[in-house]
Amino acid sequence: MFSKTIFTVAFLATWVLAWPVTKRDECDGDHTYNYGNTNAFTPKATYNYDVSTGAIECTPTTNKVTKSDTDNGHHITTLMTFEYPTASAGMMCQFGFSLDATDTLTGNQGGLVDLFSSLAPAPGCTSGWGPGNQRNIHMGRLAPVLGGEATFTDTYTTYLTAPSPCKAPGTVEAFELVGVNDNVHVEWDPSVSGAFISYS
């Protein structure tokens, strides 16, 4: 009887560990999760940035990438801060972006977004200029899809747009997602969808 109990517990533990988790709200303290059997980690912080005023909105309920020819230059981008977890040590990493079927995606060419690296992470809420978005290297262009993972339509660096050696655990990196063309509206709940870095 005792050996049968041990077998049952071991079987259930193996089954639970193998089950793919696809929702961001099931991530652990390291912001790691299993996305369709792919290990990944999500941003430790996300912010909405107003390109016109330099204002940084912290802890938004939704992240946005918006551009409109009627917004008087108040384009919104998403700033993201990642911290590499212990589990990614010695692995290969790649940037990814996914949307839930209930998220918002409209715009020219279906709603494209550009990925940039940032010189430094956003410091938190600001109402105006300083420090700005810290935009640095144009890394690639993504074509998001509702209910799935975006693909890179163009890449301008191989770093994280293709499998790249993961940074050491504890390393902090920042990135920015920016709308392409005159009109685009991408909006998502960061606890469910959005940016991630996969590792294998």
Q: How can the largest sheet be summarized?
A: 7 strands, antiparallel
Total strand count, please?
16
> What's the number of domains?
1
Portion in beta strands: 35-45%
Helix content: under 10%
Gap between N and C termini, in Å?
40 Å
Task: Label the structural class.
Answer: mainly beta
Principal-axis shape: globular
Order of the strands making up the biggest sheet: 4-3-6-14-9-10-12
Number of helices: 1
Radius of gyration: 18 Å
SSE order, one letter for each helix or strand: HEEEEEEEEEEEEEEEE
How would you characterize the overall build of this protein?
The chain is mainly β. The protein has one domain (21-199). Helices cover 8% and strands 42% of the residues. The protein has 1 helix and 16 strands. It has one helix at residues 2-18, and strands at 32-35, 38-41, 45-50, 56-58, 63-67, 76-83, 92-99, 104-107, 113-118, 135-143, 148-149, 151-155, 164-165, 172-179, 184-188, 194-199. The strands form 3 sheets. The protein has a 7-stranded antiparallel β-sheet, with no helix packed on it. Strands 1, 2, 7, 11, 13 and 16 form a 6-stranded antiparallel β-sheet that branches. The longest helix is centred in the first third of the chain and has 17 residues, at 2-18.
